[in-house]
Design a protein that fits this description.
- The chain has helices spanning about 20-30, 150-155, 165-180, 190-200, 210-230; strands at about 1-5, 15-20, 45-50, 65, 75, 80-85, 100-105, 115, 120-130.
- Helix content is about 25%, strand content about 25%.
- It is α+β, with helices and mostly antiparallel strands.
- Strands 3, 4, 5, 6, 7, 8 and 9 form a seven-stranded mixed β-sheet that branches. Strands 1-2 form a two-stranded antiparallel ribbon.
- The N and C termini lie far apart (about 60 Å).
- This is Single-stranded DNA-binding protein.
Length: about 230
């Protein structure tokens, strides 16, 4: 009989018996949901496919997702909060889009986990989602696992839209940022907000929005501003 050796949020150590690989994942989900972990965070964080950013089962590493009262997406792990950061692709530098969960480093953190400049700002990364590798079904939330055909479609280029173009997208971004000033969304990426509000594919940019989508985004931002002013 195989065993999982787990450490709880209060430092308690337990061993859980499991019959095979599938059972080990099931037991890890069960105990991970209670904050138990089976190992340490690797240097640079867990590296996962970009397509799994919204389907990864955080319980497998003893973590859980949470949305702050300010509307910010974070992941709680080991008593610490890791913020979600969406980094857009930069074709000029051949850099793909990345979604990262990280936090500021503390003096008590192991040196091998700290990233950034010595003497400057340093941070610790919990997980990084990037690359066009196929998703790993075993690591996804069971209810959100996609069928092979769906996974293949997720790697296709997003449909071409009759977009509003770069110039109008820039004006739309400025207008929305102005409306959201002094609200809980101040400083948030307008593109990130658009993707969430309009349910857009990750590769779509503001310039790709249709006329109607641009209007819908502006209307939602104005509604948030009006609510904040009330």
């Amino acid at each position: 009989m195989n065993q999982l050796h787990l450490t709880g949020p209060l430092g308690q150590r337990i061993s859980v018996e499991c019959t095979d690989y599938a059972d080990s994942l099931s037991k890890m989900r069960e105990w991970g949901a209670k904050g138990f972990v089976s190992g340490e965070i690797p240097a640079g964080g867990y590296q996962l496919p970009y397509s799994m950013a919204d389907t990864f089962d955080w319980a497998l590493i003893g973590a859980r997702k949470w949305t702050t009262p300010e509307g910010e997406d974070v992941v709680l792990h080991g008593g610490k909060s890791y913020k979600r950061r969406d980094l857009e692709a930069n074709p000029r530098k051949s850099m793909p889009a990345v979604i990262k969960y990280s936090r500021g480093a503390k003096s008590s953190d192991p040196e091998h986990l700290k990233e950034g400049e010595d003497g400057g700002f340093q941070y610790v990364t919990l997980a990084v989602f990037r690359g066009d590798r196929q998703s790993i079904p075993d690591y996804e939330v069971p209810a959100q696992r996609r069928q092979p055909q769906q996974r293949a479609q997720s790697h296709q280029e997003p449909p071409t839209l009759q977009g509003i173009g770069e110039e109008r997208a820039s004006r739309l971004e400025t207008a929305c940022a102005g409306l959201l000033a002094a609200t809980k969304f101040e400083g948030r990426s307008i593109l990130d907000i658009a993707r969430r509000v309009l349910k857009l594919p990750e590769l779509v940019t503001l310039a790709d929005l249709t006329e109607q989508q641009g209007k819908d985004l502006h209307t939602r931002c104005k509604a948030e501003a009006d609510k904040n002013a009330a």
